[in-house]
Specification:
7-stranded mixed beta sheet, 11 strands, single chain
């Protein structure tokens, strides 16, 4: 019942910046925590950043000080500003959202975006 549409990925040089967006839509009761997991080839998927509905962020140690996550609840959209990008940031970034469905009884589940490729290379 929730769809997550990502945009903003692409190819940048080391030290460059990208801004990812993820817009949620669908018939849900509420959208709670949102964020991004990322996965490089041959590596485990890791949580890069997350943000609660109230705006409290959480970052992986590897991105602290370089990435900033934010959200616009009115637009059901979460953003990830990525600065000072490094080659090791390369991977597929998957937006996710913890949503509560408007059913009886209501229940919470995780919705996933399709993934967007981020490549940092010279």
């Amino acid at each position: 019942q929730v769809q997550l549409v990502e945009s903003g990925g692409g190819l940048v040089q080391p030290g460059g910046s990208l801004r990812l967006s993820c817009a949620a839509s669908g018939r849900v009761f509420s959208i709670n925590t949102m964020g991004w997991y990322r996965q490089a080839p041959g590596k485990q998927r890791e949580l890069a950043a997350a943000i609660t509905r109230a705006g409290s962020p959480n970052y992986a140690d590897s991105v602290k000080g370089r990435f900033t996550i934010s959200r616009d609840n009115a637009k059901n959209t979460v953003y990830l500003q990525m600065n000072s990008l490094k080659p090791e940031d390369t991977g597929v970034y998957y937006c996710y959202a913890e949503v509560t469905l408007g059913i009886t009884p209501p229940r919470t589940y995780t919705g996933w975006g399709q993934g967007t490729q981020v490549t940092v290379s010279s």
